[in-house]
Request: fold
Amino acid sequence: MKRFIIIAFSILSFSLYSQNDKPLRNPYTLEIAANETQQYGMDVKESPYFVKAEVLQIYCGEKIFVECEIEGDSISHMKVVKNMIYPQKTIIIDFDQNSENRKEIRTDLRVKKSV
Reply:
C-alpha cells in the first residue's frame, strides 16, 4: 500500500509539473508604435519561445516566467512555464512599450529574479 501511494504521488507530481510547461506562445497580433505617427503591426504565429538551445525570442508586450536549472555557477537548462511554481528557480522577463507620449516612445525590458 505504501509503495502504491508513493508511485501514485510521483505520477501525479510529474503530470502536474509537466502541465506547467509552456514551450509555445499563443498566436496574437502585435502592434507597437514605430514613431510619432506610425504603428507597426504583425501577426505573431504560434511559435517556440526558445528558437535554439539557449536563444530566447520575446516580443514587445510579452511577460514570461523562465524556470532555470543551475549546475555549479551556470544555467544548465531553461524553460518557459505558465505559472510560477518554484520562485527560487524562476526569472521573470517583461518586455513592454510606453507610447503615451509619441515623441518619447519608451521600450523597457525588465529581467528579475522572483526571490
